[in-house]
Amino acid sequence: MPNQETNVPQAETITSPPPRPKTSPGDAIFAAIAKSSGLFVLLLLGAIIVVLFLGGMKAFHAFGPYFLIDDEWDPVQDLYGAAVPIFGTVVTAVLALVLAVPLAFGIAFYLTEIAPVWFRRPVSTAIELLAAVPSIIYGMWGFFVIVPIMAQYIQPPVIDTLGDVPYIGTLFQGPPFGTGILTASLILAVMVIPFIAATMRDVFETVPPVFKESAYGLGCTTWEVMRSIVIPYTRVSVVGGIMLGLGRALGETMAVTFVIGNTNRITSSLFGPGNTIASLVALEFPESQAGTLKLSSLLALGFILFVISFIVLAISRLLLRPRLKT
Predict the structure, then answer these.
(1) Among the listed residues 177, 187, 184, the one whose alpha carbon sits nearest the alpha carbon of residue 152
(2) Which of 83, 116, 159, 249 suits 322 as a labelling partner, its CA being 20 to 30 A distant?
């Protein structure tokens, strides 16, 4: 039989690109810059903590552990205690979160699930503008608007209604001056709502639409989708946004100084005056002289504020820790 040629297609030769070097100069420079940036943040934070701690050593040596629990602040007799500003800082920040988180969640829920598309942008812009307002403007607004409203329309009827109720009456007693712990908490709540709401809105929008559409297809309501799909998916970021708001509330200075009353005493009433670490430092620092026990006490308060912030961060990390299944 004659030989028949079979036309077999030839495989195309694929030329691979030349191998790249394992490390290029650009990658090395970028890695060095990124590493330097991270180290700079750590060094800066460490330097601030060290300066505050060393500056407050004189107060820690003079008063010992009682500096944390002493409620006396008397510059005339050179006696200083941190109990009052610590109490005011923690109480006002916690109350501000209690007031702000539900409102911020409602705003984010409305913008991502309920509001029409054409209305979302104006509301989102308004939230971002609120976050950009300087704190002293909030303080002036609180002093000239909120304080008179509290003194004339809010505190008197609440004192008359709840002031004599057993167990909770002590929270609503005292003269209706308008200033106090609750007023400061209201101002702080208004200030932290934009931060928490904007964070929640952004993370709610990162949920894949297929997850929500599947839940709607199974017959879930809007709230059931939010509760069972959106919140579990964004839990870490939501807690991070709340911690961001708490950090703003803990360190706020001028707005609180305008409306808290600036009295160095601990009161059981929400209407009573008080003080915070930031407001006390802002008021007393200009009158402090270098090397004095008063200046050392103020620096010690700044170090304590750092410790409080670290404890809050540690608690948030603990809450976000994965749960072991048994």
Answers:
(1) 177
(2) 249
Q: How far is CA 125 from CA 164, 188, 297, in A?
A: 44, 20, 42
Q: Burial letters for 218-236: b for 16+ Cβ neighbours within 10 Å, e otherwise? A: eebeeeebbeebbbebbee
Reported pTM:
0.84
Give the pLDDT of residue 298: 92
Contact 316, 290 (CB under 8 A): no
* C-alpha span between 27 and 23 (Å, rounded): 6
Tokens of 178: 């308008």
Give me the DSSP letters along 27-74: HHHHHHHHHHHHHHHHHHHHHHHHHHHHHTHHHHHHHTTHHHH---EE
Determine the Cα–Cα distance for residues 298 and 59; give it in Å rounded to an integer: 9
Rg (CA), the chain: 28
> What confidence tens digit (pLDDT) does each residue in 40-63 have?
999 998 999 999 999 999 999 988
100: DSSP letter: H
Residue identified by tokens 């990162």 is 206
